[in-house]
Amino acid sequence: MNIYNQFKIDIDVIVDELSADGALPGGLDTAAVTVEPPRDSNHGDLASNVALVLAKQAKRKPRDIAELIAGRLADHEAVESVDIAGPGFINLRLGDGFWRDRLAEILAAGKDYGASAMGAGAAVNVEYVSVNPTGPLHVGHARGAVFGDVLSSLLEKAGYAVTREYYYNDAGAQIDSLARSTHLRYREALGEAVDEAAFEGLYPGDYLKRTGAALADRDGEKWRGLDEADWLGPVREFAVADMMALIRDDLAALGVNQEVFTSEHDLVMAGRVEEALAILEAKNLIYTGVLEPPKGKKPDNWEPRPQTLFRSSDFGDDSDRPLKKADGSWAYFAPDIANHHDKIKRGFTILINVWGADHGGYVKRMKAIVAALTDGAVELDIKICQMVSLLRRGDPVKMSKRSGDFITLRELVDEVGRDVVRFIMLMRKNDSPLEFDLVRVTEQSKDNPVFYVQYAHARVCSLMRAVAEQFPGLDVKAAELARLQDPGELALIKLLAAWPRQIEAAAEAHEPHRLAFYLYDLAAAFHSQWNRGNDDPGMRFIVAGDAPLTAARLALAQAVAVTVASGLEIFGVEAPQEMR
């Protein structure tokens, strides 16, 4: 259970009781009341701001309210002591027995430990990767792929109904360039000598040689010697399908498998743009007008012409946004409107988009569109993933021959392994740049977080095998947990008990990196407790001649393994039984 939420509920009940008794006025709003670990553990185990939240409503001094509530909390069976600090914070210290009881809950839950009903089945759409199908995914895409995938698993753990989605732009100038590049490689596969200068402004990477050869194998000479107008469409369709197959394969190597792939071309051809804009027109949110030039400058080619505009500024954007280009075709923004309208029609109440750093300028307009389409009823959260710098022993890594100008995601996974990529990509907050050193992330040391966390799980598994040999038939379920009295043991239990709160807090903030930090801290605490046995045999997890104490410590170690496995499952990372 989330003990912090439980004590929040207990405090709410106390407030209601005090109101019913006339000690506090009725109708007090406790929504802003929190129960959290204090910043300084010397102040206790839990801290609440309830008195400060209620003071203004109740027209009473915070400390007076704190004394009323503290008096009731002192009667709680789990509470050992209550203190009032500063202007009225309530600090609670819980009895050791309360903490020991949490171990039984953890072991009973297994890998489901930390699962929450917080989401109440709310339908969430997480759109991530969504890279145009013009080539293989690169290292930067790996970060967004991992972030979106782990966030989806985190939200599922917290009780949400999650759909993982990939939206791809398979129309426009970039896709035409892909088709032209593929046609050159197709001709090359048929034996023509193609000058590399022909690829200027196109996609010269070697990865399209395979696509061109595949087209030649399928269609032979069919598209050779024809005018571009005759082959552009069919070759474009073939190239997009081939690139999407490549992308899916690369994502699968990373452990990313999305359920829904949505095509921009299909949305446009189905009339979804017109459908979405009709809703905006009915709300008088589309008009014909002239935009001002960009702030601070007036480009030489700036033409103040009438345009079809969306009243984006009514919803917090910096300016209104054009929906059509000068030639009458849809602006880049219009299909994105259709994409989000399509998600809303499918019943999602929470939308999350995971974007790269180069899309930061589109955040406000997309939030404006969702707010306009739903009158604010649907939430859109856009998470920006900053750049990844790839290093080898601190030096920048040279570019890939296969792609031409970047290191591919597949090359990264092949070199260091899926588990390493998935874990390390979450060792920084998504909006902070990330350095990924190919050597350091594979070292077996405390400085390598994925090894350090996995080693904690493997170490417990090794311990269980050793206990089975030295104490055959030892029943951990019947362990006398009261034997766990060492301050280090109790501190480790308290850290384990915080896992459900970490799940809910990370899910609410859409910040899976919090779990990476927690797992590293948990592994560090466990390894530290283990290492104490090197200096003091009495602190070892296996205590010669003392089966009851060994059973209790094994229960503690197993709770660590359960929690680590729970977290690694969210990350899509193996919880190994032994390290190679």
Word description of this protein:
There is one protein chain. By secondary structure, this protein is an alpha/beta fold. The protein folds into 4 domains: 3-94, 2-Layer Sandwich (Gyrase A, domain 2), CATH 3.30.1360; 123-166 and 258-385, HUPs (Rossmann fold, 3-Layer(aba) Sandwich), CATH 3.40.50; 173-253, no CATH class; 449-571, Isoleucyl-tRNA Synthetase, Domain 1, CATH 1.10.730.10. The protein has 19 helices and 15 strands. A 5-stranded parallel sheet has the order 7-6-5-11-12, sandwiched between helices. A 4-stranded antiparallel sheet has the order 1-2-4-3. The protein has a 3-stranded antiparallel sheet with strand order 8-9-10. Helix 4 (96-109) crosses helix 16, helix 15 (449-470) packs across helix 18 and helix 16 (487-497) packs antiparallel against helix 18 (513-535). The two termini are 35 Å apart. The model has no long low-confidence stretch (mean pLDDT 95).
Entry summary:
This protein is α/β, with parallel strands linked by helices and 580 residues long. It has helices at residues 3-20, 50-58, 62-73, 96-109, 139-157, 173-189, 207-219, 228-253, 264-269, 272-282, 333-345, 363-374, 409-416, 418-424, 449-470, 487-497, 499-509, 513-535, 547-571, and strands spanning 35-36, 46-48, 79-85, 89-94, 123-127, 161-168, 260-263, 286-289, 307-310, 321-322, 350-356, 379-385, 388-392, 395-396, 434-437. The strands form 4 sheets. A 5-stranded parallel beta sheet has the order 7-6-5-11-12, sandwiched between helices. The protein has a 4-stranded antiparallel beta sheet with strand order 1-2-4-3. Strands 8-9-10 form a 3-stranded antiparallel beta sheet.
